[in-house]
Amino acid sequence: MRPHRLLDRQLRKLGLSAEAPPSSPEAWSALLERISTTYAESDEDRYLLERSLSISSREMREMSQAMLSELEKRVAERTEDLEAALRELEKARAAAEEGTRAKSRFLASVSHEIRTPLNAIVGMSDLLRKTPLSESQREYVGTLHTACETLLALIHQTLDFSKIEAGKLDLETMRIDLQTCLDQALDLVASKAKAKGLELRCSVDANVPPRIVSDPTRLRQILVNLLDNGVKFTAAGHVAVTVGWQADGDATGFLLLTVTDTGVGIPADRLGSIFGPFLQVDTTTTRAYGGTGLGLAIVERLCELMGGSVTVESVEGRGSTFRVRLRADLAPESFTPADPFPAWPPDRAAAAHPSLRILVAEDNPVNQLLAVRMLESLGYDSPLLATDGEEVLDVLRREHCDVVLMDLHMPRMDGIEASLRIRDMFGEDARPAIIALTADALEESRAACLEAGMAGILMKPFRTDELQSCLAGLQSRSQGRVP
Asked: pLDDT tens-digit profile of 208-227?
């Protein structure tokens, strides 16, 4: 057996070897003393090692505890910082939402203040156009009418964009006759196209369903914005719309609209930003084309709200192509729209001898005079007048009326409160129909009118034919009624 190297070294110090055991008692004693010393040194080394390990374990525990405490402290600080950041973010979000609401209220208020005098301008110019005029006077009135239409379009676009940004634009769902919607959109831009000598084209693929379920107002708005944009930027040639359908199930699919023009086109470096709000291709101070730069931004937002998209292709100097893809459902034959306030389409087949007794509630003297002149031009007897809700109630206590044309914003008592009072005063058969006259574009006002039991809304500025259609629709309600 070969001994351990340490034992071998001790034996050699004593002059011994593993093969030669000690030969005398002295040698044995020396050997035993060496072995005992070795054991003692081993015990000391083991004690030192155990002590070292004990100290290391304690230090490690203390170090770990210190590190854990520091980590918990940092986590608490980070959590507090994060909670503070979240509180600040919530405050910022609330402030942004309040700012958006304030902006919407401000725009609605400005719109109301603009629409009120604009109602008089549009209405009086409309009445003036129906009187005998010289050629130059007719030209002046036509120019005035065009300026009013431009201003009104500007107000509509600004308010629509504000509503979309604030998430306040609600879509309606009703049955749409596509050809009617197309005809209405084309009619709205036909005069502009004719004035520039442009050809308006429209083609509908054979597989397009004649009726779908969607929002007719927003669909028409998308078409008009794109067609109007094409007419604006085209000096010669044509503007065309093509309608297609991509089925996506037995009763669903995508309506495909393509609007092309032969206009100035869009530079390649501007294609990526063409749908941004307030952006225009021509941004110079001497630009040849007017507008707010909101039309295409509104188109993109509406397409997104309607489950679709819009893209553009263009070659500068050769024209542009806009492609719209909108999700829609096929209209079942039994589907009927549910709109508490249907639009009053021009209806020139009104009663030849109007017999409605009408009360006009309007605090603005000019708009009051306008309503009277409009009604007289339609053959109605001079209406009763009131300047606030209290007067409306007083008149209705004394006089029978079939219709109340009710301005919403009046002193002392507004139109909503007056309508609620009328609803409480009269039974359903004896209650006059109330039509709201308002320049307020807020959706909350529309809901309030519905809640107050009103029969419809005429949005200022309204025209004589819109008033005529509204009253013609109510004419049958008064048939056989005994005052």
From this structure: 999 999 888 889 889 988 99
Task: Judge whether 183 and 221 are in contact, CB under 8 Å.
Answer: no
Which residues, 6 or more positions from 55, have their beta carbon under 8 angstroms from its beta carbon?
none
Give just the sign of the alpha carbon dihedral 341, 343, 347, 353.
positive
What is the amino acid identity at position 463?
R
How many Cα atoms sit within 13 Å of 369 on the Cβ side?
7
Residue 74 belongs to a domain: no
Same domain? For 317 and 187 the reply is yes
190 with 304, same domain: the answer is yes
pLDDT for 57-105, tens place per residue? 667 777 778 888 888 888 888 898 888 988 898 888 888 778 777 776 6
- How many domains are contained in the chain? 3
Residues 319 and 405 in one domain: no
Quote the DSSP letter at residue 202.
E
Strand order in the sheet with 358-361: 384-386, 358-361, 403-407, 433-438, 456-459
d(CA 435, CA 431): 13
In-domain check, residue 368: yes
Residue 352 has pLDDT above 60, yes or no: no
Q: Minimal CA–CA distance to 161: which of 305, 284, 20? A: 305
User: What number of other Cβ atoms are within 10 A of residue 237's Cβ?
Assistant: 17
pLDDT of 129 strictly over 80: yes
Residues 241 and 311 in one domain: yes
Asked if residue 314 and residue 195 are part of one domain, the reply reads yes
- Mean pLDDT for 288-307 is 76
What's the predicted TM-score (pTM) here?
0.56
